[in-house]
Amino acid sequence: MSRIAVIGAGIAGLTLTAELQLAGHGVTVFEKSRGPGGRCATRRSEAGPFDHGASSLHAVTAAFGAQVLEWQRAGWIAADTAEGARQLIGVPSMNAVAQHLAGEVRPTLNLRAEAHVCAIEPGAPAGWRLRMLDGTLDAGHFDAVAVAVPAEQAAALLAPDVALTEVLWLTRSEPCWTVMAAWAEPWAAPVAAWVSTDPTAVLARAHRDDARAGRPAVQGIANRWVLHATPQWSADHLAMAQADVISALSAAFANALGVSPPPPVHAAAHCWRYAQVPGPRAEPCGWNASLQLGACGDGWHRAGDIGGAPPDGIERAWLSGRAMARQMALTLSPG
Ligand SMILES: Cc1cc2nc3c(=O)[nH]c(=O)nc-3n(C[C@H](O)[C@H](O)[C@H](O)COP(=O)(O)OP(=O)(O)OC[C@H]3O[C@@H](n4cnc5c(N)ncnc54)[C@H](O)[C@@H]3O)c2cc1C
Q1: Residue 41 near residue 70 (C-beta atoms within 8 A)
Q2: Distance (Å) from CA 38 to ligand 1 centroid
Q3: What is the 3-state secondary structure (H, E, C) of 260-322?
């Protein structure tokens, strides 16, 4: 059995972890946030939950299609038509799949939440140890380390592997400013979702979160919306104050829908510094068998099935995490 550290409990890290555990390896997952999910995120608030990261998922590959069907049968995701076209969403929130994945492996999983890794250091006489953000060295000794975080953040961690670091620095993620707003008074919106086709606009898309399948009703709240800025606007306004972002996106939203909503009773903004990857790498993941170090996630696995459409972020994360487990299996000591 190998002792493996997985850094990041998003879809990629959790998929990788599940496969490694199935193969009998001892896995410790380090996650800097309070819980699993990463960008499949749900923000809790007094006005109810908001899916402020990924808003839906879909499968273009046969492998992920089969997985999605299983998740649907298990009730982790459901088809939803609130936004017009049929799409698949996590229930009761987009974070559900990650919560269930973590739950499935939890009986034997060492999931370390609020554990921010800042460096991977050589162990003695071999293997790896992890330096935490507070400067302490984690007590664990690992035979292998897999980094399942956005490419730019992985590059900063994978200094011991110069070649992999260079590859990761070439991957660029686009940012996304997101606004979550809730209203106590009902007001009529002409649509439950809106998408822009103009990459130079302020607003990229907006969806009415409370109208989606399985979302809880919250007393005193009539509706909840999530607004996403375009990558261009987000990149141009990375340092903007949250209150100004809320004003700018709210104005663009009112203008796009042709409505004048009353002032919201709740409004918050979140900046995803590394939201989506427009040009993922062709390789399924990066694994250095001699160093026993690697990286996976949505910055990898550009291709879908032969002749098929390219996979979106969640699907790439899943495919990449699974591919990583298979590459690692070739060189790890058997479980
Ligand atoms: C606003 C937005 C909208 C999106 N819409 C869609 C969509 O509709 N459909 C779709 O398919 N995809 C969408 N995506 C992209 C999708 O969410 C991601 O591609 C996917 O979730 C990536 O999963 P991952 O496991 O690779 O990375 P992540 O989900 O980012 O997981 C990485 C994890 O690592 C943790 N971490 C990072 N650094 C460290 C560290 N140093 N130490 C410990 N832990 C660390 C993070 O906290 C995080 O939990 C969207 C993303 C955003 C932000």
Answers
A1: no
A2: 4
A3: CCCCCCEEEEEEEEEEECCCCCCCCCEEECCCCEEECCCCCCCCCCCCCCCCCHHHHHHHHHH
Nearest ligand 1 atom to alpha carbon 275: 53
Q: Which two tokens stand for residue 295?
A: 């990286």
Asked if residue 129 lies in contact with residue 117, where contact means CB atoms within 8 angstroms, the answer is no
Count Cβ atoms within 10 A of the Cβ of residue 45 and give its class: 0-12 exposed, 13-18 middle, 19 or more buried: middle
> Residue 176: beta bridge partners?
272
Regarding the beta carbon of 13 and ligand 1, being less than 6 Å apart is answered yes
* One-letter amino acid for residue 8 of the chain: G
Report the atom number in ligand 1 closest to the C-alpha of 33.
47
Looking at ligand 1, which residue's alpha carbon is closest to its atom 13?
A: 54
Model-level pTM greater than 0.85? yes
The full set of domains in the chain, from first to last, is 3-40+96-170+280-329 (3.50.50.60), 46-94+174-276 (3.90.660.10)
Model pLDDT for residues 75-87, shown as the tens digit of each residue: 999 999 877 778 9
Residues in contact with 305: Cβ distance below 8 Å, sequence separation at least 6, in sequence order: 60, 61, 62
- CA atoms within a 13 Å half-sphere pointing along the CA-CB vector of 324: 36
How many helices (H) and strands (E) are present in the chain, helices listed first?
8, 15
Query: Which strand (E) or helix (H) includes residue 72?
Result: helix 62-74
Q: What is the pLDDT of residues 37-50, one digit of tens each?
A: 999 999 999 999 99
Establish whether residue 56 lines the binding site of ligand 1, counting it when its CB lies within 6 angstroms of any ligand atom: yes
Q: Is the CB of 297 under 6 A from ligand 1?
A: yes
Ligand 1 atom 1: residue of nearest CA: 53
